[in-house]
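Why does residue order matter? Because the sequence determines the fold. Keep that principle in mind as you read this record.
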Amino acid sequence: MPVRADAPAMLFLCGDVMTGRGIDQILPHPCEPHLFEPYLRSARGYVELAEEAHGPIRKPVDFAYIWGDSLAELERAAPHARIINLETAVTAAEDAWPGKGINYRMHPGNVPCLTAASIDCCVLANNHVLDWGHAGLQETLAALRGAGIVTAGAGSDEAEAAAPGVIDLGGGARVLVFAFGLESSGVPAEWAARKDRPGVSFLDDLASRTADAISERVAACKRAGDIAVASIHWGSNWGYDIPGGHQAFAHRLIDAGGIDLVHGHSSHHPLAIEVYGRKLILYGCGDFLNDYEGIWGHESYRPDLSFMFLPTIDRAHGELLSCALIPMQIRGFRVNRASREDAAWLQRLLSREGARFNTRAKLGTDDALQLQWDQKPVKRES
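Structure:
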């Protein structure tokens, strides 16, 4: 639905969406299942683990299956743009990255599982997009773009990888998605795109000068009414600590005047949320979909739980007006509405971790959460 010239825009954002390996095996067109992992040598083993934990999965599933209850939530909310971090290569290539061990891929024939949810933009600046080499990346780009899905954070060369993904909202309105990967999240430095080499948009550091360089690129293409998103794959998979460097970098991106929303990911569970200068910072969104069912060891973090993030943004200033958080749970390789008990657990988590940022979550009668924060005045140039 096009956005009116003076109307705010709602976005759908989530954390990592991994449609490869075991999930690819239950879709209509699976890749060859062989793996190079020390524990499992076939992707079908991940299907067996999930079925042992939560019951049989009827195979092949249809393309919409993996989205489960989120499809009804998307239809109800009708966000103007849908952005995910796609943490897998989309390729049948056999050139596994040497020595990496964990190699995710989804067959290009299964791309309809993304269009089934009307995904607008796939962020690719992460630590799995090159799991099957440069040929695998090129096939990923071709498959997604051939399906009409915008990509951000990876490309055939440095310029293409650095270019924003542009989502046209109609009426001249746009969402610009700038995406970056860091070594702290497992992105190898050698995956950085170069003038003569495909790769990802890689950040060597989180220095102020790096943020300012990004802001200059944003200013070069951002128009009045555009919403600029910085989607960043950073940090470790586990733990609630937010490095001071992450916070300083997010603040600098906002203070420099270009970025309206920071979309952080890599953590396998949601992290604290900050509203800074009335701009939304998601430091870590958690895994929205993966094939980890039946793998134990981090139960205290509840990595099966995550959110559909639905922020509504005033396009005149890029300011956050509201943010609905729909609690979801991965079960049976699909995304399901979380129970009220689990939603309450997530509410307590966000309120506890958000206390340092004066943010908290309120649980509604519909088992959805609303983000709350302390408003602070924002000085604007006259």
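The chain has nine helices and 21 strands.
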